[in-house]
Specification:
This protein is an alpha+beta fold. The chain is built from seven helices and four strands.
Amino acid sequence: MSAQDFENEYKKEFEEKEDLKIDEMQKTNKGRVFEEAAGGRIVLCGANAYEQKYYFNPLFKEIPESIKKELNIISVLFTQEAGGIFTIVFEEDGSISIETNADEEDITYDEITAGLLVGEVRRKRQDLFEALGLYYKIYVLHENPADILDED
């Protein structure tokens, strides 16, 4: 499923419900629509160089504004540098994946540059991604914070 299909599916499901909370999503079947669409994963944010758009999943609107802005900057700068589509995704276990891809016809997309940039983003923003992973495990998966901290 493409990012556009995912976004369209989201709009059909939730366009009237502006004030959704993550806890409410866990109590309904509607949250499972996105897990199925992303193969059990949930898109946090992404940028599309073709449409020059940034997407932030409103299910995570409780994340502090400073982090939202940082994610926006990371995503947009990535697509400006490498092109294509860039997404940050929560895996089922709460870890974070950074993904990039491009249309088959896009001759300007550079896979090597994209791969190097993904590595650089992971290194420079490791603390941010670890914190987001903890946020996801605690507020979405409802894991006990003490258990998570004991694992480390």
